[in-house]
Amino acid sequence: MKLRNNFKPLIVFLIIVSLTLSAYQTRYFIFVPISGYSNENSNELFISTPLCAVIPDSNILTTETFQQTHPVLGAIGEGDITLVYDSSFPVDRRGYAQELFDLVYPEIKSIYGDPSNIITVTLSYDPDSYPWNFYYGATNTIIMSQLPLSIGTSPSWDAVFTHELIHAFHDALYLTPGEGSWAEEGMTEAATQIVAMNLQGRRDIVLRDPVVNLKYYDVWSFMGKDVLGGGPDFTYKLVPDLHYRISSAMFFILTTELSSNPSNPYDFLSQLNNQIYSQASSNPIFSDDRFKLMIRQSAAGRLVEGQLADVWIGNQPVTSGFVESGFQIGVYPYRPENPTQIRVLTFLRLSDAREIPLSEEVNIRIIDSEENTIRTGAFVTGSDGTGYLELDSTPLPLGGYQIIATTNFNGIEYEARNYAFSQGESILIEQADNSLYGVTLMNPVDRYPAAYPCLVEQSI
Ligand SMILES: [Zn+2]
Q: How far is the CA of 192 from the centre of ligand 1 (A)?
């Protein structure tokens, strides 16, 4: 969470450890310190598969055809989904899929609203499309590239199926065509994670842990729009999984900030869908600006981090539709609450927005609040355009830090910066608690990180 400091021309970082905040009401997740570095949290390894791409019904792009293929409903949004099976989906797995559908479908409706259309969705299986999974709007087909295990449950399969089924809710819509997948994928993945949370104890549905995603949200976003923005869909991105996580965390923050029903505390996504449905009958295509207008109207003046909701969305780097081509470098701390690695992305964005990984030699410097360089290192990013510097297992001393990554591409020196906190002891954030671990004050002008100790009072 970034707070703007309008009074000092500096960027200020502060660390507060073990501060008990009895009046602190958590709006997102709250975090708990774990003693000692535990084994790697598998959710934090950022497994890059499986992935999803939604292929909307191209008929939607021509209103006349759209009206022929989608007979006029009372209003878009009073839909229903029935699941059937393609011959490619094994008969002995259909009971598993049907049981999961029967469990998650009402749960999705409770937080996402009704489907936009009355449709029969066909579930099919195509291992050749691995690691991608699809929802094809034109044929109302979910294509899964893996099958659930024959014994027990398959938590990540369940998450991907739920995700694809949620895409089917927007069957009669097309969000931000050509301007990025952040809207459709972000809403869908956030809803998937909320369904998984609501079903905890009844069904283990796990792919991308929202606690982990929210922990990283600010350091990822700090890489900025040149690293995170651009591309018509996530298949163009260097690390698609990163974009599912960032865009879902963004909608998670939005729904947590703006929901208004205490008995259904993530209901903003259904409010947003209902607003979209109410405007969709005349035109089912929602450009970037029109989609943000739907957010503004459904937020009805409520603010997100001090900004109008649609303005806040527009300020998130992942929503930047069109960004420059050329070489890019991004850097962020792995475990932002206590860095154990410094991770780097190096890639070339082509003129058509595709991101091509580049293997580059990268130098890292970590600078403390007294501007001392306390760590340096070098490594070469891999053929996938990612790499990392392993830090000592002993945590950095308590404080805020600046991270600088530099590389030379075609004779030009490129630099990326980010920030990090250290608790000075082995603390990991893996689940909810009511402690405040760090505050980041951003200067909106230069956005260059630096670390300064200062006193911060907080109130809600
Ligand atoms: Zn998707």
A: 10
Tell me the CA–centroid distance for residue 240 and ligand 1, in Å.
Answer: 11
In this structure, the answer to whether residues 197 and 229 fall within a common structural domain is yes
Do 322 and 230 touch, CB atoms closer than 8 A? yes
Q: Which of 162, 321, 161, 340 is nearest to 236 (CA)?
A: 321
In total, how many domains does the chain have? 2
Write the pLDDT tens digit of every residue in 259-305: 989 999 999 999 999 999 999 988 899 999 999 999 999 999 999 99
Instruction: Give a yes or no: residue 431 inside a domain.
Output: yes
| Cα 338 to ligand 1 centroid, rounded to whole Å | 31
User: What distance in angstroms lies between residue 434's CA and the mean position of ligand 1's atoms?
Assistant: 33
Same domain, 170 and 241: yes
> Contact at 8 Å (CB) between 348 and 326?
yes
What does DSSP say about strands 439-442 and 2-4: parallel, antiparallel, or unpaired? parallel
The pLDDT, as a whole number, for residue 26 is 24
Q: What are the phi and psi torsion angles at 398 (to 5°)? A: -50, 130
Contact between residue 134 and residue 52 where contact means Cβ atoms under 8 Å apart = yes
CA 266 to ligand 1 center in whole angstroms: 20
Q: How far is the CA of 165 from the centre of ligand 1 (A)?
A: 9
Q: How far is the CA of 139 from the centre of ligand 1 (A)?
A: 16
Q: How many angstroms is it from 273 CA to the middle of ligand 1? A: 17
The pTM (predicted TM-score) of the whole model is 0.85
Cβ pair 217, 318 in contact under 8 A: no
Is residue 366 predicted with pLDDT exceeding 60? yes
Domain that holds residue 24: 2-42+324-442
Cα 186 to middle of ligand 1, angstroms:
8
Distance 428 CA to ligand 1 centre (A): 30
**Residue 58: strand, helix, or coil:** helix
